[in-house]
Every structure is written in C-alpha cells, then in structure tokens.
Amino acid sequence: MSEEEDDYMSDKFLSGLQDVRPSLVSNRAKKRLIRVESEQAENSKRQREAANASTANNVRLQESLNKPIAADNKGFQLLAKMGYKAGSGLGKQADARIEPIGISFKNDRGGLGREAAIAELAAKRQELRLRKAGIQSAEEISTEAYRRRATQKAEERKLNYDIRRCQQTCESLDLAAGVREPELDFFWPPKPIEPSIETEGDEPVEKQAESEEEKEELYSGAEQLELLTSYLRTAYTFCYWCGTHYESIEDLDRNCPGETRDEH
User: Where is this region: Disordered (predicted)?
Assistant: First the structure.
C-alpha cells in the first residue's frame, strides 16, 4: 500500500468521520424548528380567517334582521292568516310587542352560567360597599350625601385622635404629680384587660360585681374629650388646644382663648 493512499482504518480517517454526526443533529433541529414555526403560522392564519368569517356572518345576520319580513315569507303569510297586519304588535294588545327580540352575539368561550355568576358577584360587591357606607340602596347615592359621610368620618377620626392625645397627656401629668389611678377610667389610655377570676389556693374566687352606683357612666366621644380637657385645665393649668402649660389659673384665663376647639 502506497503512502499516498488513505488507510481506512487509520486514526486520521476515523477522526474525519466524527464531524458528520453533529451536522446531522443540527440539520434535524433546524428542520424541526422550521416545521413548528410553519405549523404555528398556519394555525394563526386559520384562526384569523375563522374570526373574520364569524364577524362577516354576524354583520350579514344583523343586516338581515334589520330588514322587515317580506310579504312572500311563509312565516309572514301564516301570521297574516291569523289577522296580523304589518306594523302592528303581536298578542291580544296591539302594541304588546312590535320590535323583535334583540340578538346579542357571543364571541368568547365562557359559559352562560359564568356570565350570570360574574354579574351576580358584581351586584353583591356593590351591595356590600353600600351597606358598609351606611346606604340602603344605590338611589341614595348623591354628591351631597357622599360629602356628609366623608365629613362625618373625618370628624370621627379627629375626635379619636384628640382623645388619645389627651389621655396620654393626662396620664403623664398624673404620674408626675404622684397620682397612681386615673380619676375616670377613660382619662388614661386603655390598658390590657385582666382576668376577672383570681385563685386563692386551689379554689377560684370570683371578684365581687360592682354595684349599680359604682358602675362607670358611659360617655360619648365628644363628652369624654370635654371632660378630659376640663380636667387638664383645672388640675394642671394645661390647655390641650393651645398645647401650653400655663403658670397659673390667672395666666390661663388671661392668655387662653377659651375651652373649646372653635374658640381657638
């Protein structure tokens, strides 16, 4: 065998064959990719054609529905035999129904039950929103009513804020003066509720119920704020509305505009 002739069993020849397999894999992958893209394009084209055909059919159907029924129509002829006249209504009353029932086209794939459920859900959500806002029905909604509710909510938030600030101030001044218990329960910020049953040995002993005379009176938020501000003025010459701790009662009376927010 001459040196110029190739040895088909040599490493040189076998190494040349190793480059063939990757090219075949690459070609197959490209062919598959091209086939998938082609199928996707064809599917998209078919969907567009079906949508266009459905729209065209709907348009033609609507146009035909808008046209009056011709006199040679079999249905029209049957109605005419029963006394129907063009332009008059059906039924015992002449004006019972003149226009035909409208047709609504459905283009999505959702079921009719789901549409009813979504409509009912929207109505329920609206009812809950109205109930939360203190409105019995949607007819009560108006600009004036909305403004009244917004003003009322803003006043309630401001009142609660003023009560909390007064309670914090009252507690701080009382503790600084050596007072260990508030004059009224709501004069200090509320504390965690303690259990009403104490244990003495192994036997639980219930606390004795307070008498009717000892029970705390209930006050509205505005009344609580009035009592708090009055107590702070009298006990500590402090005006919550001014935010000032005066030196004496005379200094308070001379420099403070008054006892209420409006006077400030």
Answer: 31-59, 191-217
Nearest alpha carbon to residue 242 among 227, 228, 252 = 252
**pLDDT tens-digit series, residues 227-250:** 999 999 999 999 999 999 898 889
pLDDT per residue as tens digits for the range 70-92:
778 888 888 888 877 776 776 66
**Which residue reads 């009055």 in tokens?**
230
Give which of 67, 91, 63, 95 is closest to 79, Cα–Cα. 91
What CA–CA distance (Å, rounded) separates 152 from 138? Answer: 20
CA-CA-CA-CA torsion for 38, 39, 44, 49, nearest 10 degrees? 100
Mean pLDDT across the chain: 76
CB burial readout 148-170, b (16+ within 10 A) else e: eeeeeeeeeeebeebbeebbebb
| Region of residue 83 (phi > 0: left; psi between -120 and 50: alpha; otherwise: beta) | left
Give pTM, 2 decimals. 0.42
